[in-house]
Specification:
The protein has 650 residues and is an alpha/beta fold. It has a domain of 129 residues: ANL, C-terminal domain (GMP Synthetase, Chain A, domain 3, 2-Layer Sandwich), CATH 3.30.300. The strands form 9 sheets. Strands 12-11-8-6-7-14-15-23 form an 8-stranded mixed β-sheet, sandwiched between helices. β31, α18 and β32 form a beta-alpha-beta unit. Bound molecules: 5'-O-[(S)-butoxy(hydroxy)phosphoryl]adenosine. The site of 5'-O-[(S)-butoxy(hydroxy)phosphoryl]adenosine has 21 residues, from α12, β20, β26 and β27.
C-alpha cells in the first residue's frame, strides 16, 4: 500500500557527484540569497552568461512591478546556446530528433549554428525581419522549429509560438494581437504514422487577411498536397539553399523581449506573456544544472511540445544553454505501443526524462509492465510538470521507470515564471511523493494571505513569489495594466504588491510546499491551461445558447475535464447538443478545449447580484453533496433542478 508519509532520501551514489549535494548546501544557498539578494544573482550572472557588454545594475526596482534585471547588459542568447559551445563542443550532438515513424537525425552544435544562421539570414534578407518584429510559429516538432526560434533570437526578432493543437480562430487572434509580420509553418507532420496538416489552418487563420502579416514561410515535412498562395507563401526548402551560414548575432539588451507566449487567464482573451533575454536564459540554464543536474555526456529528453513554455525553456533554451544533448520527438509516447518512450530511453541512453503527469498516467494504464522490457539503466533523474501528480502515478514512475534509484522531481512553475520555481533537488532533497517540496535557491516562494501573513501549517493560502526573479514575466504584450492587475493585485507584503501565481498551496510541518491547485477560474486539462471564461465565450457564440458556465471536473487521466452547463434559449432543440457544442469549441479554440460533459440545465445558480456561483457548479459536476450555503442564491431551488438535469444527462 502507498504510505503517504514515506520520504525518499536522495540516492547517495547520485548525491556524491551532484551539483547540490545536501540540504545543508541548499540552506546555505538560500541564506546567501536572503542575506544579499542581488549579490547572489550577480555571482551567477557573471559566472554563467557570455556578455557582449557588462550590465550596470543587477536589479532595478524603480518601476515595480516592471522589474528590470542586469540593466544595460548586452548579449545574444544564441551565443549562450550555440556559439560559445563551438570552441570545444562543435561535434557534440545538440539535438537528437526522432520522427514519429522512427527516423532519427543527430544535429551537432556546428550544424545547429549553420542552420540557425541560414534561417536568420533568410528572415533578415528575404522577409526584412528586424529587431523587435514579431514572428508567429505554428510548427510541428521538427528541427526547423528549433532553428526558427533561435533564428529569431539571433536577429532580435520576437517569436510567438502557437501550439499546433489550437484552431485557426485561436491562431488568428494571437497573430493579430502580436501584430506579427511573418508566420512560419510546415505543410504538416506525422502522428501515429499518418500525415496531418498544419498549413491549411494557417490559410484559414489568414483567410480574411491580417494587416500586419506580409508573408508565410512553409517548411516541407510530409509533402502532402497543400494550397499555395503565390506572392504570400514561400518555400523554406528552396530559399534556404541560397542562404549563407554566417550571421552576426544582433546585440541585444538584457531587457529586450525574447519571446511572447500566449496563455490563458481567468478573464478575457489569452495574454501574451512577454519574456526577456538575460534573466530568462540565466535561469533556464541554472535550473537545468540544479534541477536536472545536467552533466557532460548526458542525453536529456523532455516530451513537451515547443508550443508550451516547457518546450521553450526545457527543450530548447535551457538544454542548449547548458550545452547538453536534447531530444526532440515528433510523435506520441504511446505509438506504436506503450513501450515507445522506454524504447527511446534505451536507444538514446536518456539520462533525464521530463514529462507530464497525464502522460505518466496514460503510460501506466496502457503499459504497466512495459518499462521492464527495456534497459532503463541510463536514467538518473525523472521529472514531472504541469499539474499535481497523484501518488499511484508517482510510485509507478519512481519504482518501475526509475528502478527506485532515480529522484522524481515534481517541478512547479508557470508560463509566467519562465523556469522552475519549486522543485526537489535530485541530490539533496528528501522527497515526499506528490509534493513539489521547496523553493529553489534564490526563489522566495511563500504561502500567505492577501496581507502577506504566512499561513499556518497545513492551511491553504496564496502561492506567491515575494521577490522578483530574473526569468519572470515582464509584462503582458500591449497591456501593462492587465499585467499589474493579473499578477500584482491580489497580495501585498511589507507594503509591496507581490506576484501571485493563481495557485493555492500549503506548507507542512517540515516546511514542504504542496500545490493544491488553481484558486482562479483557470482549469488544467491534460496539462493544458484553459480559462473557463474563454471556453464560455466560445460556447456563447452559439445562437441557441442563452447562458453558459464552465467548470473543471476531476478526471482520472486528464487531471481535469471540461464540464459545460448551458441554458438554452426558449424553444431551442437539445438534440446533438454535445457534438454541436464540441465542434464549436474545436473551431473557436482547438480540440484541446473539447468538453467531456455538456448538460442543458434550467438555469444557473446566481446570487441576487447576478454572479454565477461556480463553486456550487463544481460540486454538482463532481457529484458532491452541496455543503455551501445556498440561501443567498436568487433562486435556491435551482440547485436541485440542476442536479436532476445532470443526473438525467450522465
Ligand atoms: C499551472 C501553470 C509550467 C509548465 C507547464 C504548465 C500547474 C504546473 C505543477 C506542479 C501542480 C502544477 C499550476 C500552474 N502546475 N506545475 N508541479 N504541481 N501543479 O504551464 O500552462 O503556465 O500552467 O500549471 O496550476 O499555475 P502553464
Amino acid at each position: 500500500m502507498f504510505d503517504s508519509d514515506k520520504i525518499f532520501p536522495p540516492n547517495p551514489e547520485f548525491a556524491k557527484n551532484a551539483r547540490i549535494k545536501s540540504m545543508d548546501e541548499y540552506y546555505a544557498l538560500m541564506d546567501e540569497a536572503k542575506n544579499d539578494y542581488e549579490g547572489f544573482w550577480k555571482k551567477y550572472a557573471d559566472e554563467k552568461i557570455e556578455w557582449i557588454e557588462p550590465y550596470e545594475k543587477v536589479l532595478d526596482e524603480t518601476n515595480a512591478p516592471f522589474y528590470k534585471w542586469f540593466t544595460n547588459g548586452k548579449l545574444n542568447v544564441t551565443i549562450q546556446c550555440i556559439d560559445r559551445h563551438l570552441k570545444d563542443k562543435a561535434d557534440k550532438t545538440a539535438i537528437i530528433f526522432e520522427g514519429d515513424r522512427g527516423d532519427v537525425q543527430k544535429i551537432t552544435y556546428e550544424t545547429l549554428a549553420k542552420e540557425v544562421n541560414r534561417f536568420a539570414n533568410l528572415l533578415k534578407n528575404r522577409f526584412d525581419i528586424k529587431k523587435g518584429d514579431r514572428v508567429v510559429l505554428y510548427m510541428p516538432m521538427i528541427p526547423q522549429a528549433v532553428y526558427a526560434m533561435l533564428a529569431c533570437a539571433r536577429i532580435g526578432a520576437i517569436h510567438s509560438i502557437v501550439f499546433g493543437g489550437f484552431s485557426a480562430e485561436a491562431l488568428r487572434d494571437r497573430i493579430k494581437d502580436a501584430k506579427a509580420k511573418l508566420v512560419i509553418t510546415a505543410d504538416g507532420a506525422y502522428r501515429k504514422s499518418k500525415p496531418y496538416l498544419l498549413k491549411p489552418v494557417v490559410d484559414d487563420a489568414l483567410k480574411d487577411g491580417i494587416q500586419s502579416v506580409e508573408a508565410v514561410l512553409v517548411v516541407k515535412r510530409n509533402n502532402e498536397k497543400i494550397d499555395w498562395i503565390e506572392g504570400r507563401d514561400h518555400d523554406y526548402d528552396e530559399l534556404i539553399k541560397e542562404s549563407s551560414s554566417e550571421c552576426e548575432p544582433e546585440i541585444m539588451d538584457s531587457e529586450d523581449p525574447l519571446f511572447l507566449l500566449y496563455t490563458s487567464g481567468s478573464t478575457g482573451k489569452p495574454k501574451g506573456v512577454q519574456h526577456s533575454q538575460a534573466g530568462y536564459i540565466l535561469w533556464a540554464q541554472m535550473t537545468m544544472e540544479w534541477v536536472f543536474d545536467i552533466k557532460e555526456g548526458d542525453v536529456y529528453w523532455c516530451t513537451a511540445d515547443i508550443g508550451w513554455i516547457t518546450g521553450h525553456t526545457y527543450i530548447v533554451y535551457g538544454p542548449l544553454a547548458a550545452g547538453t544533448t536534447t531530444v526532440l520527438f515528433e510523435g506520441v509516447p504511446t505509438y506504436p505501443d506503450a513501450g515507445r518512450a522506454w524504447k527511446m530511453v534505451q536507444e538514446h541512453k536518456i539520462t533525464q526524462f521530463y514529462t507530464a503527469p497525464t502522460a505518466i498516467r496514460v503510460l501506466h494504464k496502457m503499459g504497466e509492465d512495459e518499462p521492464k522490457k527495456y534497459d532503463l539503466s541510463s536514467l538518473k533523474v525523472l521529472g514531472t510538470v504541469g499539474e499535481p501528480i497523484d501518488p499511484p502515478a508517482w510510485m509507478w514512475y519512481h519504482e518501475e521507470v526509475g528502478g527506485g534509484r532515480c529522484a522524481v522531481v515534481d517541478t512547479w512553475w508557470q508560463t509566467e515564471t519562465g523556469g522552475h520555481m519549486i522543485s526537489p533537488l535530485p541530490g539533496a532533497t528528501p522527497i515526499k511523493p506528490s509534493c513539489a517540496t521547496f523553493a529553489l535557491p534564490g526563489i522566495m516562494a511563500e504561502v500567505i494571505d492577501k496581507d502577506g501573513n504566512p499561513k499556518e501549517i497545513g492551511e491553504t493560502g496564496l502561492l506567491c513569489i515575494t521577490k522578483p526573479w530574473p526569468s519572470m514575466i515582464r509584462t503582458i504584450w500591449g497591456d501593462h495594466e492587465r499585467f499589474k492587475k493579473a499578477y500584482f493585485s491580489d497580495a501585498v507584503k511589507d507594503g509591496k504588491a507581490v506576484y501571485f501565481s493563481g495557485d493555492g498551496a500549503m506548507v507542512d510541518k517540515d516546511g514542504y510546499i504542496t500545490i493544491t491547485g488553481r484558486v482562479d477560474d483557470v482549469i488544467n486539462v491534460s496539462g493544458h491551461r484553459l480559462g473557463t471564461a474563454e471556453i464560455e465565450a466560445a460556447v456563447a457564440e452559439d445562437d441557441k445558447v442563452a447562458e453558459v458556465a464552465v467548470v473543471g471536473r476531476p478526471h482520472p487521466i486528464k487531471g481535469e475535464s471540461i464540464f459545460v452547463f448551458l441554458v438554452l434559449k426558449e424553444g431551442a432543440v437539445t438534440e446533438d447538443i454535445k457534438s454541436h457544442i464540441n465542434s464549436l469549441l474545436s473551431k473557436e479554440i482547438g480540440n484541446i478545449a473539447k468538453a467531456d460533459d455538456i448538460v442543458a440545465v434550467p438555469g444557473l445558480p446566481k446570487t441576487r447580484s447576478g454572479k454565477i456561483m461556480r463553486r456550487i457548479l463544481r460540486s454538482i459536476a463532481k457529484g458532491e453533496e452541496i455543503k455551501q450555503d445556498i440561501s443567498t442564491l436568487e433562486d435556491p431551488s435551482i440547485v436541485a433542478n440542476i442536479q436532476e438535469a445532470v443526473k438525467q444527462a450522465v
